[in-house]
Amino acid sequence: MTGVRATIHRPALAGLLAVGSLGLALAVGCGDDVSDVSFPEQPDPPIGVWFLGVWGTDPDNVYVVGQPGLIYHWNGDEWARQTSGTEVALTDVWGDGAGTVYITGHRGTVLRRSSGGGWSAMNTGTSADLFAVGEYQGTVMVCGRDGTLRQLSGGGWINAPEGIYIRDNEQAVTDTLVRSEDVESITSVAHYGVTASEGIILMDDPETDWLLRRVTGGEDWVTCSTSSDRLSGNFVATDGGRLFQLRQDESDALSWEEWYSPALGAVVYGIYTDDADTVWAVTNDGRINRVDPPGHSFRPLYEDGRVLFDIWGSSGTNLYAVGIGGRVLHFHEVAPDEFGWESEELPLPETKSQTERVFDRFGRTVP
Which of 67-71, 255-259, 322-326, 349-353 has the lowest mean pLDDT? Predict the structure, then answer.
């Protein structure tokens, strides 16, 4: 492994713990008249390898996905590229705990792999860009642009419930919405709700399909979440750098409590939390930050100025963060009693020069 190493010695650890090139061929006519020459539409500027998602089950079973159509797997000994059958941007990866792993991507892409098998494309019934996959209260869902939310049913994908209520503090209905018409984009799926643009979190409602909550007053997108059947293990973060935890009051009402602004104004693209409710967050300016309970103390762990899109770990001492340039950063024991970040070496495909424009998994220009 190579790359910059940020080392943490054991005594400090308790407090820190931390598309592709399109290769366009110009079609030229054979006649002498210049009017016989046809010029096909030029592609977008070529981009390099970007990793957008990371997930695993244990230290010896980790997946990273990205663009163009990239899937890599760590088996404990080496990183191996797996065949995806597509060149679209792959945005997220997640498994159901029973050995089946799902990957979402743009243009309605969902790939599935069962234990011991290869990746196969599923018919999702949508061409919308998909951003994330997860489990909402026992149902596997994928989400994406234009309020797209599809749920797995009988081995196929069907439209998720559409109806939304907005309630006041007395629980009276003040407005009704239709998800696919009134929500711009749905960004992630978690056990207690799905997150969306304009500060929206959709949660279960006893009288209709969804109850709409807002955590940012509609100013920022909720960009990512963590998911757990343990209520306090559910967090969301925003592109305004704000972090919220799901809480339950004495009357059993659920609410999102703001913890901290861990990115200091940067966009939070991915978060990971452990069983102690410690949160690690990655940002658009290449930072990895940590927020600890109690007191929600904030500590920066890493910074290189280059966009990071996601983070996952098997524990607080074994973490992976991924981003542009085919970067996979690994926090682990780099020497006896020393922990730090190292760059993993993956067998990356050759690409042309990196464009200066960087887009996130939602298709937005990275600030």
Answer: 349-353
Q: Does domain 2-20+49-139+228-247+257-343 have CATH number 2.130.10.10?
A: yes
Token pair 């290869």 is at which residue?
118
Locate the domains of the chain by residue range.
Answer: 2-20+49-139+228-247+257-343
Q: How far apart are CA 134 and CA 147, in angstroms?
A: 16
* CB 204 within 8 Å of CB 165: no
> pLDDT tens across 196-205, in order?
999 999 999 9
pTM: 0.86
Cβ 91 vs Cβ 110: under 8 Å? no
CB atoms inside a 10 Å sphere around CB 353: 10
Q: Are 305 and 288 in contact (CB under 8 A)?
A: no
Residue 353 is predicted with a pLDDT of: 52
Tens-digit pLDDT profile for residues 139-174: 999 999 999 999 999 999 999 999 999 998 888 999
Band (47; pLDDT cuts 50, 70, 90): low
CA atoms within 13 A on the CB side of 291: 25
Show the 3-state SS of the chain: CEEEEEEEEHHHHHHHCCCCCCCCCCCCCCCCCHHHCCCCCCCCCCCCCEEEEEEEEECCEEEEEEECCEEEEECCCCEEEECCCCCCCEEEEEECCCCCEEEEECCCEEEEECCCCCCEECCCCCCCCEEEEEEECCEEEEEEECCCEEEEECCEEEECCCEEEEECCCCCEEEEEEHHHHCCEEEEEECCEEEECCCEEEECCCCCCEEEEECCCCCCCEEEECCCCCHHHCEEEECCCCEEEEEECCCCCEEEEEEECCCCCCCEEEEEECCCCCEEEEECCCEEEEEECCCCEEEEEEECCCCEEEEEEEECCEEEEEEECCEEEEEEEEECCEEEEEECCCCCCCCCCCCCCCECCCCCECC
Residue 29 confidence (pLDDT) above 50: no
